[in-house]
Design a protein that fits this description.
The complex is a heterodimer of chains A (536) and B (115).
Chain A lengths: L10 H15 L5 H26 L12 E5 L8 E5 L1 H22 L9 H17 L3 H19 L5 H32 L4 H7 L5 H21 L9 H7 L2 H7 L2 H15 L12 H20 L3 H21 L6 H26 L6 H10 L21 H18 L5 H18 L3 H30 L11 H19 L1 H15 L2 H9 L7
Antiparallel strand pairs in A: 1-2
Chain B lengths: L1 H19 L4 H21 L25 H32 L13
The chains are: A mainly alpha (536), B mainly alpha (115).
């Protein structure tokens, strides 16, 4: 095989592992060195991810002679050894992980990484788990990478300590430990009947499973489905999310915005792979569709009811998960490109939103949001609200406030899916696909999906404008101090969303290719089982 | 043997679920530990139950696969034990931190109105 580039798929896992381990060994006093190492490792991951995306998209020379790259770890052939598989979807999510990871890392270096010990190594291990989960072609390794990312996320969630974080962390860990046990049960059941843990091999053997074996397989698959739905925060398995995300430190919550999408990825990957052999329940179809709708409803209601910006952002994550699940559940292949664009756009937007909130709230007194909304609800004049007097008209807007306000508006546009940003392009694509579906096989479901998309957007808009007005159009506090290191990453994430809207054409081309590969699972199966492993 | 094995898994799981739903953090962690034992036994059973069969092939002489146990579930159990042990230890630390912050071992960090 052609030189070291054949080993590229391994790098997204190995790089953060080595970097994280090295940072642990460096003395806490040498902070610049630790930070430098972390930034370099994350930059390298971004480079590798872009390279892999280029290869998978057919833009760069492929060292494995095809779009789907298979890396056989330890050089053991596919059904027996462990494989890492890079296709367009994996590469896309690797790029997303590295981008969001880099921005949240830069943001954290301004302040947050000093709020506790070993933030940087845990952050690298989280990236390792995410990258591994997106790359692995093996059910048990998916479990292992889930555990890696969860173990790191437990540590990161507790970063900064405090009673609220520990309480939310306790619940989060308990829920995820139970989910992990269900994952093991599901994986073991599937191994028991299919005799393999390789996803491609399972998909190949699926049609030959009949009778009791097929029932057992479906039970195992449903257990896995429940686990992925817990991760994806589907109703009614999502009550852990809002307290955990809203109490986490800002950069941690920012990168957590991606974690729910790991569940969505797993559902999408297995759902499409198992489709020809008979899709198990929960991996698509009515269960996902109605579950997704219920998730959108809970998220939208939560956004309307939220009295703190952190909780509002948590519910925004739930709405985006629900939208993805409902669209996957409707089973129309025409949804997939827009769905993936929505995934990227909503991850970047909510990630930026979590960090923005922390900057906005830095100078607010505790409970100010709660009071503001209560005053509004009961029609009382805010006793401490100086805007009641008329002599403050025409005050100059300081640059920091202007930046925060602009960023808030952009986040709101992205989250609710209003023009002109990428959130709109994605939602427009979903609605266009639904209109297509309305004339086709799923008339009722498509109209329901359109209604859910529009109504959740409206609910988000109401909630965000109300909170935005309360936060920005009151001068009850001093202007927050911003550092470039903090404002920069948020601006960069939002600019990326602008770019995704401006270059929506090329982006959709790539995503259409992604969807085409995804819905032709035989390509994946052939590449894994017959293709010569790259490590050979 | 299958019946005894299945009953054992069932009883351990049931105890684990009951403990998991209790309001004290220590009961929750015991429940999680019991559940992970049950899950480990279950994974082991997925390699089919048999006696006096080694999982490692003996290279001397002809190999008859039927006389060997499936090594994969044993490897899976080993991994699951290690991961389960680590996460339980982590949970224990969080449990102690929660006890320290809240001054109570209730899972919600405060006593309910009923107690």
């Amino acid at each position: 095989m052609s030189g070291w580039t054949a080993h590229l798929p391994m790098l997204p896992v190995v790089l953060p592992l080595i970097a994280g381990a090295a940072i642990v060994l460096i003395d806490d006093g040498k902070r610049p060195l630790r930070a430098l190492l972390a930034v370099l490792a994350t930059l390298a991951q971004l480079g590798v991810a872009l390279w892999l995306a280029g290869i998978a998209g057919g833009l760069l020379h492929s060292p494995w002679g095809g779009e789907i790259g298979v890396y056989a770890a330890g050089n053991w052939a596919a059904p027996f050894g462990i494989v890492l598989v890079v296709d367009r979807l994996s590469a896309l999510l690797l790029v997303l992980t590295a981008t969001l990871g880099l921005m949240t890392l830069l943001y954290s270096l301004a302040r947050w990484d000093r709020a506790g010990v070993n933030f940087l190594p845990l952050f690298q291990f989280l990236l390792m788990g995410l990258n591994g989960a997106f790359l692995t072609g093996d059910l048990f390794n998916l479990f292992v990478f889930f555990e890696v990312l969860l173990a790191a996320s437990y540590g990161l969630l507790l970063h900064g300590s405090g009673a609220a974080r520990v309480k939310a962390g306790l619940h989060y860990i308990a829920v995820n430990l139970v989910a992990s046990l269900l994952f093991l049960l599901g994986a073991a059941l599937i191994y028991g009947v299919a005799g393999t843990l390789n996803l491609a091999d399972i998909a190949r053997k699926l049609p030959s499973l009949t009778g009791a074996d097929r029932t057992l397989f479906d039970i195992g698959a449903v257990l896995l489905g429940i686990v992925f739905l817990v991760k994806a925060a589907a109703w009614p398995l999502n009550f852990w999310l809002t307290p955990a995300y809203s109490s986490a430190a800002a950069p941690v919550a920012g990168v957590f915005a991606l974690m729910t999408k790991v569940g969505v990825y797993a559902l999408l990957r297995m759902g499409t792979l198992f489709e020809p052999g008979g899709r198990p329940p929960l991996f698509g179809g009515d269960w996902l569709f109605y579950g997704g709708l219920a998730t959108i409803a809970t998220g939208a209601a939560g956004m309307l009811a939220a009295q703190q910006l952190g909780r509002l952002a948590g519910y925004a994550v739930i709405v985006s998960s629900g939208t993805l699940l409902a669209a996957i559940g409707l089973l129309g292949n025409q949804y997939t490109p827009s769905l993936l664009l929505y995934l990227c756009s909503s991850v970047l937007a909510t990630g930026a939103f979590f960090m923005l909130i922390e900057m906005v709230e830095r100078n607010r007194s505790y409970g100010a949001d709660l009071l503001a909304v209560s005053f509004e609800a009961f029609g009382l004049a805010d006793p401490e609200d100086p805007t009641r007097s008329d002599d403050v008209v025409g005050i100059a807007i300081p640059a920091a406030m202007a930046f925060l306000g602009l960023a808030f508006v952009m986040c709101a546009l992205l989250i609710t899916g209003l023009p002109p940003l990428s959130g709109f392009v994605a939602k427009f694509g979903l609605i266009a696909a639904a209109l297509e579906g309305a004339a086709g096989i799923t008339p009722v479901g498509s109209w329901v999906l359109i209604a859910a998309l529009l109504l959740s957007g409206l609910a988000g808009l109401i909630a965000l404008s109300r909170n935005g007005i309360r936060v920005f159009w009151s001068n009850a506090r001093s202007t927050p101090r911003l550092q470039v290191a903090e404002a920069g990453p948020v601006a960069a994430l939002l600019l990326l969303c602008v770019a995704m809207a401006a270059f929506a054409g090329p982006a959709m081309d790539y995503l259409q290719g992604t969807a085409a590969t995804l819905h032709a699972p035989q390509l994946y199966i052939d590449a894994v089982l017959h293709g010569d492993g790259v490590g050979r | 043997m299958e019946l005894v094995y299945a009953l054992a898994i069932g009883i351990v799981t049931a105890s684990g679920v009951w403990l998991l739903l209790r309001p004290r953090t220590f009961q929750v962690i015991m429940g999680l530990a019991l559940l992970s034992y049950a899950v480990n036994l279950f994974i082991f059973a997925m390699g089919r139950l048999n006696m006096n069969q080694a999982p490692v092939l003996d290279p001397s002489g002809a190999v008859d696969i039927a006389r060997y146990a499936d090594p994969v579930p044993q490897a899976l159990v080993l991994t699951a034990i290690v991961i389960g042990f680590a996460t339980t230890a982590l949970f224990l630390v969080v449990l102690l931190a929660s006890r320290g912050f809240a001054g109570t071992d209730h899972v919600d960090g405060s006593e309910g109105e009923n107690r």
